[in-house]
Specification:
The chain is α+β, with helices and mostly antiparallel strands and 400 residues long. 61% of the residues lie in helices and 9% in strands. The chain is built from 11 helices and 5 strands, in the order H-H-H-H-H-H-H-H-E-H-E-E-H-H-E-E.
Length: 400
């Protein structure tokens, strides 16, 4: 009974395949078909070769041909039972050599030893391979009348070389598989990191939008209470206005509980949320850090929803941060353009586009999430003349 192998080589299974890249995947035949073809070809080659030797075939010529055919056919299961096949091939070769047969049968043993060394761990392959090499050397020693040491050494080197080659290929296979497993693990870690970044950005957006929504709901509650006081408690709409206030206060309480799950450990953020009117101040802060920023606004004179203005501000903030920190830009232009249907934000700079585009931080992820919140579109990439461009389109219909 064969011992099981712990080597992570593909050759350890019946469906083992050659090293990746040697043969295209679509051209590889099934392992069973390939092994059967190799075994049939080896058996035919040995039979034809020995039959053509004529008088040089040993006294038991017919038996030798039968043993050679058996040696070739056994190769069909060499991947499934490498130890058993190698042992059988060793006995066959030794018997053929002991009775003065031809050395052609060594070819089948060499292939069996190679497969064993490539498919099994060294603690199994080395003893079996060395035993096969010793058996071949002793058989040749007896067959040559104990005088032709060159033939003995050549046979031993042939089988030993097949074993060494198999050990190298098996080690190489294990190394390649380990690299593949490592690459797959890194890819999964990258996916988990990307998912974490997206989740963090969505929490941040939710925290910021809470203040905007809470402000509007508070205004509704206060305005409803004011109207109820003006109309008096006996007015037919008083109960409706009171119910509206109760629902509004309940909504605010539920929003505070929800926000408690999203707050960072640092505490509650109480600073007012910025908007479009704060972009010039942001540009001035970046300018003080060493990058000149020009702000151009078209068609944004009218009031815009506060959440939309907050998203536009954050997009500009992230774009300028990427340009300064990662793109090493010296100049940037911020263009905010309003149309009847959209609010467009564009940031162009003269930095190193490759560094800015390839930065795996939160910046581009945050932009995508804010644009997706309003069903808009985001375009980022290097400019033809150098630098980097960020263009976001936020539909106004999503805020109505």
């Amino acid at each position: 009974m064969q011992a099981s192998s712990s080597r992570p080589a593909v050759g350890a299974s019946p469906t083992a395949r050659p090293l990746p890249g040697l043969v295209p995947e679509r051209l590889r035949p099934p392992p069973g078909v390939a092994d059967g073809a190799i075994a049939a070809g080896m058996a035919l080659f040995l039979v034809v070769s020995l039959s053509g030797l004529g008088d040089t075939v040993g006294p038991g010529g017919q038996l030798e041909i039968a043993l050679a055919a058996l040696a070739g056919l056994l190769l069909a299961v060499r991947r499934r039972f490498p130890v058993t096949v190698t042992a059988a091939e060793t006995l066959i070769v030794f018997a053929v050599l002991r009775f003065g047969g031809s050395e052609f049968s060594l070819l089948a043993l060499m292939l069996a030893v190679y497969t064993l060394a490539a498919a099994r761990e060294r603690r199994i392959a080395l003893p079996v391979g060395c035993a096969a090499t010793a058996a071949v050397a002793y058989g040749l020693h007896l067959a040559t009348g104990r005088s032709d040491w060159f033939v003995v050494a050549a046979g031993a080197l042939a089988v030993g070389g097949a074993m060494i080659t198999g050990l190298y290929v098996g080690t190489r296979r294990a190394y390649v598989e380990q690299l593949g497993a490592h690459a797959a693990r890194l890819e999964r870690e990258q996916e988990l990191l990307a998912e974490r970044v997206v989740a963090e950005e969505r929490e941040r957006i939710a925290r910021e939008l809470h203040d905007v929504v809470a402000h509007h709901v508070s205004l509704m509650v206060v305005q409803g209470a004011g109207v109820r006081e003006m109309l008096g408690p006996d007015h037919p709409l008083a109960p409706t206005l009171k119910a509206q206030g109760d629902v509004g206060r309940q909504a605010l309480a539920e929003m505070r509980r929800m926000l408690g799950l999203l707050r960072a450990p640092g505490g509650i953020e109480r600073a007012p949320q910025p908007g479009l009117s704060d972009i010039p101040m942001l540009a001035a802060q970046v300018h003080a850090s060493g990058m000149r920023v020009q702000v151009v606004q078209h068609g944004v004179d009218g009031p815009l929803p506060q959440g939309l203005g907050l998203s536009a501000y954050r997009i500009v903030q992230e774009a300028l941060t990427n340009a300064f920190r990662h793109g090493r830009a010296r100049n940037a232009t911020v263009t905010v353009r309003g149309t009847p249907t959209d609010l467009e934000v564009e940031v162009v700079d003269d930095g190193t586009a490759g560094d800015a585009a390839g930065e795996p931080g939160h910046g581009l992820v945050g932009m995508r999430e804010r644009v997706a919140l309003y069903g808009g579109s985001l375009e980022t990439g290097p400019r033809p003349g150098g630098g980097f461009r960020v263009h976001a389109r936020l539909p106004l219909e999503a805020t109505r």
